[in-house]
Design a protein that fits this description.
Radius of gyration: 18 Å
Distance between the termini: 21 Å
Structural class: mainly alpha
Number of helices: 9
Helix content: over 70%
Largest sheet: none
Length: 246
């Protein structure tokens, strides 16, 4: 909840800050793409690292990366910094999400596992609402740079909690490993999984297009950051409901 709220708010803040710095829509599009560039290449390996190192260390390192991605624009405001921060945020988020989903799926069987994923989906839905709305009001209240500082506090709490309470994120139950090694091609070879991936790709593309275009269009028609945040929060919550059903 804390990390995803921060990440969702980060994307809204980046777009609005880039507009304030005079960036063109094309530049913002490239900047927005940096959140996803390396996750495309690293997502499969993020799972392997989670298998080898457990859950606590990847979550802690990813949370630290999220904190750093938010402190950079606060300390060094500028378009060049935003490119570095967006790249770091994207890399950190994919390692975090993979490890957390591994944790959710590794505990319990059958109905219990479905309950775990339901709770996880609720948290993601809530953060998709709270992140943009909080960010919008914070920008109007204290400005872009201070909002980066506020958002950095959220993943910092995650790091602090895991340092003080190591047992909060238990290791997944031990399962027998198969002798054969899995690759990305093996996953794509699964017909049912491939259908899910294709459907998810279209859904995520629509969501990301809306998230990218809304701040630019909203500013062009005179909406405040708070109003843009409310619209994006409502959209994120509605879309998460659809994803949960799927």
């Amino acid at each position: 909840l804390l990390n995803h709220t921060s990440f969702k708010g980060n994307k809204v803040l980046m777009s609005l800050f880039a507009i304030d710095l005079g960036a063109s829509p094309a530049t913002i599009g490239v900047l927005y793409a940096m959140y996803s560039l390396f996750p495309i290449l690293l997502s499969f390996y993020a799972g392997k690292i989670s298998d080898r190192l457990g859950l606590r260390l990847p979550v802690m390192l990813a949370s630290c990366g999220l904190v750093a991605s938010l402190l950079l624009p606060y300390a060094f405001p500028g378009l060049a910094t935003l490119f570095v921060a967006a790249t770091l945020a994207g890399i950190s988020n994919i390692f975090y999400v993979v490890a957390i989903q591994h944790a959710v799926g590794s505990h319990g069987e059958g109905p219990e596992r479905m309950r775990n994923y339901s709770i996880f989906s609720i948290c993601v839905g809530v953060s998709s609402l709270v992140g943009p709305v909080f960010t919008g009001f914070a920008i109007d209240g204290v400005g872009h740079r201070a909002t980066y500082l506020f958002l950095a506090v959220l993943p910092a709490v995650t790091v602090l909690a895991l340092l003080l309470f190591p047992a909060m994120l238990p290791s997944p139950k031990h399962r027998e490993r198969r002798a054969t090694r899995r690759s990305m091609a093996d996953l794509l070879g699964n017909v049912r999984l491939r259908r899910v991936l294709i459907a998810t790709a279209f859904l995520e593309a629509g969501m990301e297009l809306f998230t990218f275009l809304m701040p630019i269009y909203g500013r062009s028609i005179g909406l405040t950051a708070s109003q843009i945040g409310i619209v994006m929060g409502a959209f994120g919550l509605a879309l998460m409901a659809v994803r949960t059903v799927m």
